[in-house]
Design brief:
Na+/solute_symporter_sf; single chain; mainly alpha; Bile acid:sodium symporter family protein; 82% helix; Na+/H+ antiporter like fold; transmembrane; BilAc:Na_symport/Acr3
Length: 323
């Protein structure tokens, strides 16, 4: 039975985007399936995702922050300048509805996504640098995300920066810290690697449940406003994500990074923690239900695009005779 769950966990990690999209499509036709994913429940589910991240981190991962401070500093600056800046530009160029604009800005102001580490590994990037960037942006998120959102979205809606700081602290930093502590205390036990092997599957399942909850919330609006609302929102998410990859690469090039680090910073900048954005939208902007739509689309699309980009990098290596 254990091997079955481990195999399922591996499958979910390898086919994250397919599973998340499948749950989203299912929920569209059966919208009441995830009605229970609201408020506190949604927050707890995100906390579980962040806990699974913490369980896979070791003290060596945090040593990267001290050993490579300049790399991580450049990465963090790129993360919190490029994505909010691109989101702000797109919102005004595309003249988005306030609710959709809020969702894109929220995604842009969030830290890097957890699955970016996997993508960096797949495309022969600098995995240590990827983990360092993820740790740094997650640690900075309680301050940077509310601050940047207040700057970029303050004209659209009142942003409770203090409340958001506390919420992000609760759903990101505390679960990650608990996970790290458990890893530190029990990491050398024989059974702990088995527990860690189940974490990817749990994380992906929780992410899919969050997306399902979002689809349940916006279902009526999607039906009422038709396919164009989805396509319009997806187009903005696509541009935001793609420009993040391109500008992240350029930031690495300007910093004089080698190929592995340029790949890593492009993936880290482009892939956001859209799950966190989804929970924040539900908790703080419930009066604007469509704000969660860009967040939900980003949850699925970032996994798909990250996989595609990693494949492109590997294809490039193959074409140029690199292993």
């Amino acid at each position: 039975m254990l091997k079955l769950f481990q195999g399922l966990s591996r499958w979910l990690a390898n086919y994250t985007s397919i599973f998340v999209i499948g749950v989203a499509v299912f929920t569209f036709f059966f919208p009441h399936t995830f009605d229970w994913v609201r408020g506190t429940t949604q927050t707890v589910i995100l906390g579980i995702i962040m806990l699974t991240m913490g369980l896979t981190l070791t003290t060596n991962d945090f040593k990267i922050l001290a050993q490579r401070p300049l790399d991580v500093f450049i990465g963090a600056c790129a993360q919190f300048i490029i994505m909010p800046g691109v989101a702000y530009t797109l919102v005004h160029v595309w003249h988005l509805d306030p609710a959709l604009a809020l969702g894109i800005l929220l995604v842009g102001c969030c830290p890097g996504g957890v699955s970016s580490n996997i993508m960096s590994y797949l495309c022969h990037g600098d995995v240590a640098f990827s983990v360092g960037m993820t740790c740094a942006s997650t640690i900075l998120a309680p301050v940077m995300t509310p601050l940047l959102l207040k700057i970029t979205a303050g004209e659209i809606i009142h942003v409770d920066a203090v409340g958001m700081f506390i919420n992000i602290l609760i759903v990101t930093i505390i679960p990650v810290a608990i996970g790290c502590a458990l890893n530190y205390v029990y990491g050398k036990k024989e059974y702990f690697p088995t527990i860690q092997s189940l974490m990817p599957g749990i994380s992906v399942t929780c992410l899919a449940i969050i997306v399902g909850g979002v689809i349940s919330t916006v279902h009526d609006d999607l039906v009422a406003r038709g396919l164009m609302l989805f396509l319009w929102t997806f187009a903005v998410v696509f541009c935001h994500n793609t420009l993040g990859y391109l500008l992240g690469w350029l930031a690495g090039k300007c910093a004089g990074f080698n190929t592995a680090k340029k790949r890593t910073i492009s993936i880290e900048v482009g892939m956001q923690n859209a799950g966190l954005a989804t929970v924040l939208a539900g908790n703080f902007f419930a009066a604007q239900p469509l704000a969660v739509l860009p967040c939900a689309i980003s949850c699925a699309w970032h996994s798909i695009s990250g996989t595609i980009l990693a494949g492109i990098y590997l294809k490039w290596d193959h074409m140029h005779g690199k292993n």
